[in-house]
């Protein structure tokens, strides 16, 4: 019976160059069971590898979603004055909640940016509603003033008469809001 760990048993099948019977391996190659200077043995852990006595490898935080939520929240808030800020605001809310999930799992570190993106996203959804409601309220409370302005502008023949109509409208709106 032959020794399964001897150098000649495995070298016949895996010798470089396809030469059976060669017990020596080529330059830089180690035989079975032999260790070179820079190689680790079976079961040993090298420096920087996770295991006993070594910390786990450091991974970089994935803060992209939180940052994107913050940026889209700011854009949404600025664009909400023009009433189309709801779209970036909605995306900011979604990305902000996804980013908070990463923060809870320890994959990200920008909890504040995520929360700010969510808050700004909600504000960019609410602000257009407030602006539309305020505008509608203003129009309905000054409906007769708008009608008088429209009638006055229809009968005005010169630029000076149109300016006079606008001045009367301004005066009636300003005097009416103070009462």
Structure description:
With 179 residues, the protein is an all-alpha fold. It has a domain at 64-140. Helix content is 60%, strand content 0%. The longest helix is centred in the C-terminal third of the chain and has 31 residues, at 111-141. It is rod-shaped. The N and C termini lie far apart (114 Å). The model has no long low-confidence stretch (mean pLDDT 79).
Helix content: 55-70%
Radius of gyration: 38 Å
The chain-level mean pLDDT equals: 79
Strand content: under 5%
Unreliable spans: none
Main sheet characteristics: none
Query: Strand-and-helix sequence, N→C?
Result: HHHHHH
Ends apart, CA distance between termini: 114 Å
By DSSP, the count of extended strands is: 0
Number of helices: 6
- Principal-axis shape: rod-shaped
Structural class: mainly alpha
Descriptive key words:
rod-shaped; mainly alpha; about 180 residues
Structure in a nutshell:
The protein has helices spanning 7-14, 64-79, 86-105, 111-141, 143-155, 159-177. The chain is mainly alpha-helical and 179 residues long.
Write the layout of secondary structure elements.
Blueprint: H1 7-14, H2 64-79, H3 86-105, H4 111-141, H5 143-155, H6 159-177
């Amino acid at each position: 019976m032959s020794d399964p760990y001897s150098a000649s048993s495995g070298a016949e099948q895996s010798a470089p160059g396809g030469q059976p019977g060669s017990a020596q391996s080529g330059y830089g190659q180690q035989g079975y069971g032999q260790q070179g200077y820079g190689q680790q043995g079976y079961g040993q852990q090298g420096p920087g590898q996770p295991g006993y006595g070594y910390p786990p490898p450091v991974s970089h935080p994935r803060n992209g979603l939180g940052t994107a939520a913050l940026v889209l929240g700011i854009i949404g808030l600025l664009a909400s004055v023009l009433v189309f800020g709801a779209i970036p605001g909605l995306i900011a809310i979604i990305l902000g909640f996804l980013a908070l999930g990463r923060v809870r799992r320890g994959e990200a570190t920008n909890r504040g940016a995520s929360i700010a993106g969510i808050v700004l996203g909600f504000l960019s959804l609410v602000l257009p509603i407030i602006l539309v409601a305020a505008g509608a309220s203003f129009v309905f409370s000054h409906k007769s003033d708008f009608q008088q302005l429209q009638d006055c502008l229809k009968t005005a023949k010169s630029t000076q008469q149109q300016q006079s109509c606008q001045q009367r409208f301004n005066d009636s709106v300003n005097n009416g809001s103070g009462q």
